[in-house]
Amino acid sequence: MRELLSILLFFSGSLRNSNNFIGSTQRIMHIKLFEAINSIEKFPFSGAKMVRAAGSFAKIISKDGIKAVLKLTSGWQLKVSNKVLASLGLVSNLSFIFINLKKAGLSRARGVRPTVRGVIKNPCDHPHGGGEGKGSPPVAQVSP
Questions:
Q1: Residue 104: helix, strand or coil by DSSP?
Q2: Average pLDDT of the segment spanning 12-19
Q3: Which residues of the chain form CATH 2.30.30.30?
């Protein structure tokens, strides 16, 4: 058991000494190609502005002396300076999209106001309003 623990400590120490462990922040010029990064600055000393949402990351596609090309999860490719800071790894909390708020009050606490569908309103209040039942008449659907 002690041997296993000492081996684990040895490898974790060597990873920490190389400054390439997940969560460390470095300039893009020091990060390997095709490495997943997050919390990227737009330009040097501006603070992390890009790739900060849950589960998001970017990859470094190419680098030259001045600029680096990043590919985002959306498919966009951005050119940024080699001197901007970025964190290694992807942003955690991947299960954020599965959160069920359970009641309207929790949504209101987050600052989201209620929305009323136009189909529910009266014809004098909205172009989609009025009619008998849920889907009548289907032809009357127009943009407001």
A1: helix
A2: 52
A3: 22-99
